[in-house]
Amino acid sequence: MKHLESAKMILQARGLSKHYGGVVALDSVDLELREGEVLAIVGDNGAGKSTLVKALTGAIVKTSGSVQIDGRETRIDNPSDAKAAGMETVYQDLALVNEISITKNMFLGREIIKDNIFGSLFGVLDFAKMDAKIRDLFEKLDIRIADIYRDAEAFSGGQRQAVALSKTVMFGKRIAILDEPTAALGVRESKMAMDLVRSLKDHGLSVIMITHNMQHVLNYCDRVMVMRLGKVAAVCDVAEVDGDTLVGLITGAIEKKVANND
Amino acid sequence: MINQKSSEFVSVPQAKTSGWQILQYQFMQIWQVLAALVLIYAVFFVLSPAFRNVDTLLSIFSQAAILAILACGTTVVLISGGLDLSVGSIFAVVGVVVGVLIKEYQLAYPVAIIGALVAGTCLGALNGVIQVVTKVPAFIVTLGGLTAYKGLAELLGSGKDLSRFPEGFQMLGSGYFAPICIMFGAALLTGLFLTKTRLGNHAFAIGGNEEVARLSGVKVARSRIYYYMIGGMFAATAAILEVSKLNFAQSSRGVSYELFAIAAVVIGGTSLFGGRGGVGKTIIGMLIMQTIIVGLAYLGVGTSFQRIAIGAIIILAVYWDVWRRQAR
Q1: Region A231-258: what's the mean pLDDT?
Q2: Crossing angle of helices B138-157/B87-103, nearest 10°?
Q3: Do B13 and A146 touch (CB under 8 A)?
Q4: In whole angstroms, what is the distance from residue A15 CA to residue A18 CA?
Q5: Inter-chain touch A156–B5, beta carbons under 8 Å
Q6: Any alpha helices (H) in chain A, and if so which ranges?
Q7: Each residue of A8-44: pLDDT tens digit?
Q8: Confidence at residue B192, expressed as pLDDT on a 0 to 100 scale
Q9: At CB < 8 A and 24+ separation, what contacts does B43-51 make?
Q10: Helix/strand/coil for A101
């Protein structure tokens, strides 16, 4: 991982906290993401992984903390701010609207408007242009879905996840954030989804990925951040840990490992 | 990424979606409810000799027209996952407003119509703004509107003789032709809005999964206010037509029209839970309801029993919607 250590920081979060009344869901967490890496976030249920991702992407209002992107202080108060900053997020269970087509899902909130008077006056959508862009993208990513006009619920879990992941390539300028991209997927579909995650790198994206699957951490990620009880328990290079160590860190059987990435 | 569930649709990756395919797909959405309409019509056609003429058919359409226009707005609101119980009262207010503008303020009727449309749209906007700001559920806010707007209509119209309008204004709602044309015009506009525009497409996304829509960057609150404005505008359109047709305006009109509109939307197959539906279905739903009302009347069944029949059909339609959701 030598080449990564010299890579520049794309995202630095400092002191992210989220309190729900007296409950501290996220306790002053620091996070760093380097250009072109896949960073795994692991931890037990309730360790604060999803809260961290949501605080980072503006899906929830954080209690405190700051985010720098490319070394510049960036305010992220809502999902639109995150998107404007080049962050594209795939939330677990909240990636697609079942009731609308693949095309409409892909471009939801960022539709292409017809380049004529109907477009500028009434917001008439340019479906031909959107369809063409999706077909190009799917071909590039080897996603074999032709009937993109059908409702999202007509597709399998793997296909839906492929669509959600491809959204990060379409719109994510810098960073893709994935909350358990293989949850609820079968073995074969998981592998396809993870191959897609790996290929995000080739499209210039740095990736933060929450996962419960240690095999995926070891096979597909560059660094891993272990969370426990709302805090960072450890940050390690994947090359330097094995599955047992990770499980020990997650459960607390192994005490805090000094982060060796500075 | 090919699985059995949709593999029959997965052809060549670069296959273009043809217009014909999309038409077929849209027909698949409405054929059941269209078949139901034809079947119900056929039953009355067989049972009642008097039912078998073009005049009856035209009167079904023209009786459906005013409520169907109102229901166009209700369709948009329900698809977005909202609910508007106040459109019947907006209907009453707008009827009085157009009457007052023409008779008391002596405005030219086109100006009065524009004024009345603006009034209806504003009342709809108020419904939306109150919900978005206070987070009080749509049911309560528009139930409040149902009563409050009714009171407003009574205040505006009390002690005024709002009848005998100018000829040009009377033309709008009289006879078969004009109301039916306006109904199809309203349906066409709503259909184009829902399928072609960004705001219209967001109605399905918000009604389907508001949280996903929000996380995707859709301006949910602002869009909702627009949908209630559209509901108010169509209620106003319907009210203007009825005043023109009856040649008088009264604050007591429009009672329970919101329920008829919701019934037509649901019978047509638009989901009461949001995210699915279309305005073509609503028009068919309204025609089904009117066919049953007119048909039962021809068979000598009294209005009380007609109401019971319509009530039963509404429950059946929602049951069907619930059943389809569970089957998924």
Answers
A1: 84
A2: 20
A3: yes
A4: 10
A5: yes
A6: 2-5, 49-57, 79-84, 102-106, 117-122, 127-140, 157-171, 187-202, 214-220, 243-251
A7: 889 999 999 999 988 899 999 999 999 989 999 999 9
A8: 94
A9: B43/B295, B44/B291, B44/B294, B44/B295, B44/B298, B44/B299, B47/B295, B47/B299, B48/B295, B48/B298, B48/B299, B50/B298, B51/B294, B51/B295, B51/B298
A10: strand
Whether chain B has a CB inside 8 Å of the CB on A138: the answer is yes
Q: Do A146 and B11 touch (CB under 8 A)?
A: yes
ipTM higher than the 0.85 cut: yes
- What Rg do the C-alpha atoms of chain B give, in angstroms? 21
CA A154 to each of CA A55, B24, B26, B147, B328: distance values in angstroms, whole numbers, following the listed order: 32, 17, 16, 43, 10
Q: How far is B196 from chain A (nearest CA, A)?
A: 5
CB atoms within 10 A of CB A162: 24
Please say if the pLDDT value at position A262 is more than 50. no
Smallest Cβ–Cβ distance between B205 and the set A97, A110, A123 belongs to A97
pLDDT along chain B (328 residues), means of 10: 37 52 76 91 92 90 94 97 96 96 93 96 97 95 96 92 90 89 96 95 96 93 97 97 94 91 92 91 94 91 87 86 76
From residue A201, alpha-carbon distances to A8, B104, B257, B265 in Å are 15, 71, 57, 48
CB nearest B198 (choices: A96, A123, A159): A123
Residue B21: closest CA among chain A residues belongs to which residue? A149
Chain A residues lying within 8 Å of B5, measured CB to CB: 154-156
Are residues B266 and B289 in contact, defined by beta-carbon separation less than 8 angstroms? no
Q: What's the pLDDT at B13?
A: 37
What CATH number does the domain located at B54-327 have? 1.10.3470
List residues of B whose CB lies inside 8 A of any A CB: 1-3, 5-6, 9-15, 17, 21-22, 25, 196-199, 201-202, 204-205, 207-209, 211-218, 275-276, 328
Nearest to B283 by CA among B52, B61, B88: B61
Q: Where are the domains of chain B?
A: 54-327
Nearest-by-Cβ selection for B217 from A109, A131, A144: A109
| Predicted pLDDT of residue B324 | 76
Chain A residue with CA closest to B212: the answer is: A94
A9-20/A64-69 β-pairing: antiparallel
The beta-carbon neighbor of A124 closest among B9, B196, B212 is B196
User: Domains in chain A, please, with CATH?
Assistant: 2-98+165-251 (3.40.50.300), 100-150 (no CATH)
The confidence score (pLDDT) of residue A235 equals 92
Whether residues B201 and A100 touch (CB distance < 8 A) is answered with yes
Least CB–CB distance from A108: residue in B14, B22, B216: B216
Q: CA dist A134 to A137, A139, A143, Å?
A: 5, 8, 10
Q: Hey, what's the torsion of the CAs at A59, A63, A68, A74, to 10 degrees?
A: 70
Give A46's contacts (C-beta < 8 A, 6+ positions apart): A229
Quote the minimal CA–CA distance from B92 to chain A in Å: 30
Interface contact flag, B215 A59, Cβ < 8 Å = yes
pTM for this entry: 0.89
Cβ of residue A83 closer than 8 Å to a chain B Cβ: yes
Average pLDDT over residues A218-246: 90
